[in-house]
Design brief:
The complex is a heterodimer of chains A (424) and B (168).
Chain A lengths: L4 H7 L12 E5 L2 E4 L3 H11 L11 E3 L10 H17 L2 E2 L8 H7 L8 E4 L13 E4 L2 H10 L1 E5 L2 E8 L8 H12 L7 E6 L1 H4 L3 H9 L9 E2 L4 H7 L20 E6 L6 E3 L7 E3 H4 L6 E4 L1 H4 L2 H11 L9 E4 L4 H9 L2 H8 L2 E2 L20 E4 L15 E4 L2 H10 L5 H7 L3
Parallel strand pairs in A: 2-3, 2-5, 3-4, 5-6, 8-9, 8-11, 9-10, 14-15, 14-17, 15-16, 17-18
Antiparallel strand pairs in A: 1-7, 12-13
Chain B lengths: L1 E9 L6 H4 L10 H5 L18 E5 L11 H8 L2 E6 L4 H9 L4 E3 L1 H6 L5 E5 L4 E4 L2 E4 L5 H8 L3 H12 L4
Classes of the chains: A alpha/beta (424), B alpha/beta (168).
Amino acid sequence: MPHTLAEKILLSHCDADDVAPGDLVMVRCDVVLTNDISGPMAFRAMKKMGVEKVFDPAKVVVVPDHFIPAKDARSAELQKLLAEWAAAQGVAYYGQGRGGIEHTVLVEEGWVVPGSVIAGGDSHTCTYGALGAFGTGLGSTDIAACLATGEFWQAVPGTIQVDFSGEKRPFVTGKDLSLGVIAEIGVGGGTNMVLEFVGPGAEALTIDERLAVANMAVEAGSETGLFPADERVSEYLDGRTDRPWQAERSDPDAELAQRVSIDLDTLPPLVALPHSPGNIVPLDEARGLAIDQVYVGNCSNGTITDLRQTAEILRGRSVHPRCRMIVVPASQRVYRQALTEGLLDVFIEAGAMVSTPTCGACVGGGNGILAGGERAIATTNRNFRGRMGSPESEVCLANAWVAAAAAVAGEIVDPAELLEGVPA
Amino acid sequence: MKLEGRAVVIARDNVDTDVLYPGPYLNVTDVETMKRYLFEGLDPSLRDQLGGDTALVVGENFGPGSSREHVPQAMKAWGIQFLVGRSFARIFSRNCLNLGLPIVTCPEAVDAATPGSIIRFDLVEGRLEVDETVFEVPAFPPFMRELIAAGGLVESLRRRLDATTPVV
């Protein structure tokens, strides 16, 4: 019987003889991830389940990242608890100064390989689909069950296959591809589904770009967003991991729930206007919106690729006087790479602030909270009302080129025109 | 299992986790404190309508976004008995069921409900009543039934693990 990639991964991680969409199965985890938000509640629930030790310490990773560095005493207590718990359980722990944003860290450190199942106590665990892994976000009680037994219950999802044809235009990035998918199917359109990204436009994407696309699968309601592993993934993993893996893809005759085609030859940079990642317009229609704060960072677009694009815009230019800018490398590795390449110097010279890796203001946790009446443009993945601060503030989502150009102009502009108009 | 509640209605679609329970309060782990921030970004006055007998009636794609379990934890602590919606976001649904808080998808029932409606839900029979109108819904499958009957995944798993632990 033909299967989709998602079905193949789940079939190899459960006891069923076969799987079809809607079947309820117990899925075995290769990695269980938790952080300073989901962790403490999960640890408490695991204890109430009557379980003292995790199912397999070698498969558990703990990364405090949401309120890092601690924003207040209560957050500090949670991080202290996390460190103590990880030490007592003998599991991997990437503490302050040793990691960064969990999803970037797990990919960089080789925890994620194609065909694996990763249960994470964070909705953006779907990011691992970039490497062909079934990464999926779960709440604390689910994570407690995963820590205790190594398994979670799951209804086998259907598959929406997204075919990216053509070639990306200048100043279009993974962010625009993900917004393009959400514009097509809506913020609830992927519920009980996985997205699968195929076609020449998908194959041409770098790992950083794939991370950005997979990351926002949950913004369409999906369980995960898979890129079938290829040579590029193999190169990326070379020397990064010794976990065994093999490349799988959907059978050509596998049953799909839906097919979506997006032509990259005509896809412009996109902007999600307040207050939903589904409120998407072409960049042209967002031009002229005044911007108070620019935020480049987070688990979708805080990669070295994003920082390079940001620096290309800012080099020899300044952040507009009525605007402020925060650049947040997604991990210590990205931070150091940006330092080595001289990017941090470009940001500081331009008048931007460079922060330590953290989820920070993306989740309203600190490090760049907005006042009432203020508008930000951010490379993050959510612009819900009040997400980055006051309920009266606004967040627009866009790629790093567009965000950086807005910092220079003090309003949303086309980065192409900025680069043409003002010589660096 | 028969449940009954008085309707509190949130007549909007795509009500996200961040307005249901804003990010700055995610470092709260105590359920009583969580209750104070439920609906904080949406309409804090909604909290005044909640009681030990509430059936929460919601729109389409309720609860998209974050995996934060604070939302259903606080709902349960406020005494919400079950949720009736046009549709639910995936992680939010899981979190509710894992805490033993039933959710049921039935757009027609949502249309029929007004604030204060008496809603009865029989999840074994697959029967939903809004005031006197009856709607048929899919019955909960055995796994979900057991989850709800146990009061959530913690207790259901504890029982299962107890049963499989050899007595020394």
